[in-house]
Amino acid sequence: MNSFTRSPLDFMVSREDWCRYDLSDNAILKVKVVLTKVYKNKGQLMCEIHPIHVILTNERGNPDSKNYSAEELKASIINNIQFSTIIQDWNEYVVDDGTSINIQPLVLRIAKTSKFDSNGFPKYICEIQGNMKMDPPRS
Question: Measured between alpha carbons, how far is residue 132 from residues 8, 48, 49, 72, 128 in Å?
Fold first, then answer.
């Protein structure tokens, strides 16, 4: 078993807001890319991030409680959705060593499927990545 000589790196949230996008089918996409873990690997600061998204829409279909695989959802795409940015900002974090980390979502693709969730809302496929900047602690 490994023993640790120092505490793991922790971080504080300075700012963590939703980014919003208008979709061409009159829905709204809300995205947040959050920092979930910070650690050092061979002296280099490493991060894990997790994109979260929700689509707000008034469209409803027949509720379907089936959990579809990624392949099934891709096969059921009916439309690639265009989008425009309403607000896109940076989430800000400060690591306990003083490093500042900023993360902004990059929405790559939005596709609408013919499937609906258990509440009757349409299922979308969203490809989202995170754009990250790190600023070392000030001396």
Answer: 21, 11, 10, 32, 13
Judge whether residue 3 has pLDDT over 90.
Answer: no
Residue pair 96/10 in contact (Cβ under 8 Å)? The answer is: yes
Task: Give the number of residues written for the chain.
Answer: 139
62, part of any domain? yes
The pLDDT of residue 70 is 95
Inside any domain, residue 2: no
What token pair was written down for 136?
């070392």
* CB-count burial class (<10 Å; 0-12, 13-18, 19+) for 31: buried
> What HEC string does 112-128 produce?
EEEEECCCCCEEEEEEE
pLDDT band at 66, cuts 50/70/90? very high
Structural tokens at position 53: 């998204």
Place of tokens 């027949």: 62
* Domains identified in the chain, total number: 1
